[in-house]
Amino acid sequence: MGDVFTNARNASAGHLAQIVINKLSTDSGTNDIPDAMRQRLDKLVDALGNAGKLARICLAAEVSFLFERAPAWTKSKIVPLFDWSSVDAADAWAARKYSNIGSPELFGLTKKPFLEIFGRSNLPSDELRTFADWLTVIYIVNRSRKKEIYPISATEGRAALRRAGVEALSSVGHRLAIEMEAAPPEQKVERWRDIIAPVFNAIWPLDIDLQSHVTTFKLVQILRATGEVFPEAADVIIPFVRPDNPQSQSAIFSISEAPDSLYKSSPEKILDLIAAVVGEPTPRSVYALDKALSRVRAFAPSLAETRKFQKLLSYALI
Amino acid sequence: MKCWRLIIRHMRTTKHRTLRSEWSELAPQVKRGDHSPSVLELLAEILRPKLKVSKRLSFYDIGDKLPVHPSDLLKIDYEVKDHLSADDVLQAWPEDTSLETDDRLLSLLTIVLKAALADAIHVGVEENEGYGISDIDVPSVAQSGQNSYRTGFNAIVRVMAELWSRLAKKSPKHALAFIQTWCDGGFGLTRRLALFACADPIISPAFAADILGNVPSSELFLPNSSVEVYRLIRARWKEFPTQKQGAIMRLLCEGPPRNSFREGAEIDRAIDRCRFEILTNMVRDGFDIGDDASTLMKDICTRWPEWTPRPAEQAGFHIWHKSGWGATGDPDKLRGVPDNRIVAESKKIAEETDFSDGNTWDALCLSDPDRAARGLEAAAAEDDWTAELWCQLLWTQKEYSDPDTAKRIALLLSRWPHESFEAIIDPAASWLEEHSKTLDDELLWPLWDRIADAALIVEAVNG
User: Fold this and answer.
1) pLDDT value at residue B119
2) How many structural domains compose chain B?
3) Per the CB < 8 Å rule, is A19 touching B426?
4) Closest by Cβ to B17, choosing from A12, A126, A221
5) Which of A39, A140, B221, B385 has the fewest CB atoms lying closer than 10 Å?
6) SS3 string of A88-115?
7) ipTM greater than 0.90, yes or no?
8) Which residue, among A201, A101, A83, A82, has the nearest Cα to A148 in the 3D structure?
9) Do residue B116 and residue B65 come from a single domain?
10) Reduced to 3 states, what is the DSSP secondary structure of residue B63?
11) End of a domain among B298, B323, B348?
């Protein structure tokens, strides 16, 4: 089955829609669109049959731009396409993922069907991951600025992610890790305390059955990026870390290669993280664990005598 | 039971309609020099060939035979995420990366490759020695046109090969260590990597000869490792110590072991062909193959007088793919024809010539679209609106030399007879989008309205 948006971009109706969008984007900003253009947009949106559908899907993909350029028209003609009662909704959202989130006002208009996405059982996984990413970005933006806040409460985001399940959490973790990694060393504390920690605490589901090895690598990635605020971040994140997939072991490899500053800041917390990531595998099976433990020992020799350390050592593939 | 396990594994690991590309997210990080462990891990994971199970299609009925391997019931392939190619990765991976980073990535990729090969052997589509799925995926470890459109193990092996070459320039000592690791792996594909590496002049001739002499003798001839064997011999034979040359030549003259072939095959003929190919190539490359091998060659040529060696570029390849665009027309056939006659002349040529001679009109649209437009304009003036010729011009994305050509085409499309306009709606809409930024509004919008009226109504009726 083909992607409707791809079909639309290669159909006559799609070409015609794109011409109108191109011309609107080159026309210098007047407050509203000329009547002739509005009539052409109406002709596309109101067309019957497959042609109309393909035109609408092309326009739906550009809803952010259209809402900026022609808010009233977009509100009445395009925004309703995203409501799940519309027959075009699934294809409109599938096309929308290639675009951007848009303004808070537009988000407010589509918030209800957007949050409903996370409860739909038949949504393709790539769309679920994209929109989970958007959700995280929205919370990050809201923490980062005082004006033009996206209208969404903390409980709405967490409830959506609870419905979405594990796969969406991986995207959330990925976005938080990228944001944390982007902070220069001197801003790590501020970025963690003002943005990443509040967002994590607000939206990350607390349900035990949603914590799994799927998110382990991403949680470790966040912690690796925290720099000097690692001990504080570890207290927040380690409770959600589950043993990594024994066939992957990428998380422990990542820890073993973490910068010295992380080990130095709190060897105890690093050991806690290693214990959470490793779990209880078969003895002598975990690649890179010996390196990670050696580094812990180098920074805190006394830890090597602890029971936890000795137990972990027995799992190391030497 | 094994098949069900594979199907369940495939269902669990396959992401449905995944359009998001992990590589597109990772590539910017790789390009800007972020080579942290998490990035290297993810890169290795993306390059890891992953099991793909689908319905088996075969021209042959297996009849009453009981299935023995999962591949008797299922189509089993290995594929790489995002259809990533080695070129994508190598272009993103900076050449001036530090030695340690290259070394780390190559180590990771070696682990990942061995794990994937072990998995393929467990699944039953790969063998430690002999022809397997990795031979299909990797026609050549070195760069070759034969690697085009290959997936599965191809990307990771090509990245490893080129990465090793870069590493060899930075530190021969580090590079040498990988050759030993690859030979010790027990996998045919990693031995192919070692053979590839041994063709590099930084490797001592004696060491390279030892590696070549120690590969299982079937791998000198039968799987695609023969490509690397030929390549290594071509590059280094003259440097090999004489004693080692003699030992290798004896292996080449013996040919592949008889037990490499299935029962019922023409084994003697197959062994002769293997020896014939390598020896004729060595002679062609100007190497002295010695008296024994020369005598053997004469015997083989006596037994099979009809045999000729494959072209030099195909040395070692068991299968050689070639493709072309088919016949392209010759626009010179319209040279000297006045513009107002080229449409009529093109139609006449099309009627008289064979399909294999290509399409003259198409060739004209590609080489001189302005002239093709002038020809169509002249034909239109005589009420000749041949949709087929118009479609070819409209679909051709070539820049016009004459700034007025696009305007003339737009005007002509606006005047197109109503009754046959449906035939050119799709190419006209596509053409209009392509030129929408340069056409004046006075030309653009009337044509837009005309196409919209036709397209939206036609599609609505058909829809």
Assistant:
1) 87
2) 3
3) no
4) A126
5) A39
6) CHHHHHHHHCCCCCCCHHHHHHHHHHHH
7) no
8) A101
9) yes
10) coil
11) B323
Claim to verify: residue B300 and residue B335 sit in the same structural domain? no
Identify the residue whose tokens are 């130095």. Answer: A264
**Residue A126 and residue B20: Cβ atoms within 8 Å?**
yes
Residue listed under structure tokens 């944390």: A180
DSSP state of A316: B
The pair of structure tokens assigned to B58 is 């075969």
pLDDT in tens, A63-99: 999 999 999 999 999 999 999 999 999 999 999 998 8
Contact A51 B458 (CB under 8 A): yes
Dihedral angle of Cα B228, B230, B231, B232, to the nearest 10 degrees: 80
B45 touches chain A (CB under 8 A): yes
Q: Tell me if chain A has a CB within 8 Å of the CB of B87.
A: no
Domain of B19 in residue numbering reads as 1-200
- Indicate yes or no: CB of B437 within 8 angstroms of CB of A26: yes
pLDDT in 10s for each residue of chain B, 463 residues: 666 666 666 666 555 434 346 787 788 788 878 888 888 888 998 899 988 877 766 555 555 667 777 767 777 888 887 778 899 899 889 888 899 999 999 999 999 998 889 888 888 888 877 788 899 999 999 998 899 888 899 999 999 999 999 999 999 999 999 999 898 877 999 999 999 999 999 999 999 999 999 999 999 998 999 999 999 999 999 999 999 999 999 999 999 998 888 777 788 999 999 999 999 999 988 999 999 999 999 999 999 888 888 888 888 898 888 765 555 678 888 888 899 999 999 988 888 776 556 688 988 998 899 999 999 999 999 999 999 999 999 998 888 999 899 999 999 999 999 989 999 999 999 999 999 989 999 999 999 999 999 988 755 455 4
- Domain ranges, ordered by start, for chain A: 1-98, 101-240, 243-318
Provide the shortest C-alpha distance from residue B301 to chain A (in Å): 54
Verify that B172 and B70 share a domain, yes or no: yes
Residue numbers of A between 118 and 177 with CB closer than 8 Å to B: 124-126, 129-130
Domain match, B189 and B310 both: no
The torsion of the CA quartet B422, B424, B427, B432, rounded to 10 degrees, works out to: -80
Write out chain B residues lying below 8 Å of A26, CB-based: 437
- Partner A, chain B 334-363, Cβ-Cβ below 8 Å: none
Round to whole Å and give the CA distance between A93 and A57.
9
Q: Say whether residue B36 is in contact with chain A using an 8 A CB cutoff.
A: yes
Residue B124 pLDDT? 83
Judged by a CB distance cut-off of 8 A, whether residue B397 touches chain A is no
pLDDT score at B18: 42
Q: Which long-range contacts (CB under 8 A, 24 or more apart) does B302-307 make?
A: B303/B272, B304/B269, B304/B272, B304/B273, B304/B276, B307/B273, B307/B276
Asked if B192 and B282 sit in the same domain, the reply is no
Cβ of B239: how many Cβ atoms within 10 Å? 13
Does residue A291 belong to the interface with chain B, where contact is any CB pair within 8 Å?
no
Give tens-digit pLDDT for A115-167.
Answer: 999 999 888 888 999 999 999 999 999 999 988 999 999 899 999 999 998 88
Task: Give the CA radius of gyration of chain B.
Answer: 30
Lowest mean per-residue pLDDT among A1-5, A267-271, B243-247: A1-5
Environment class of B150 (CB within 10 Å of its CB; exposed 0-12, middle 13-18, buried 19+): buried
Cβ pair B15:A126 closer than 8 A: yes
- Residue ending a domain, choose from B200, B234, B251: B200
> Can you give the C-alpha Rg of chain A in angstroms?
24
Tell me what pLDDT residue B244 has. 94
Tokens describing residue B326: 């088919």
**Rounded Cα gap, residues B298 and B283, in angstroms:** 13
DSSP for residue B51: E
Q: What is the Cα–Cα distance from A167 to B57, expressed in whole angstroms?
A: 33
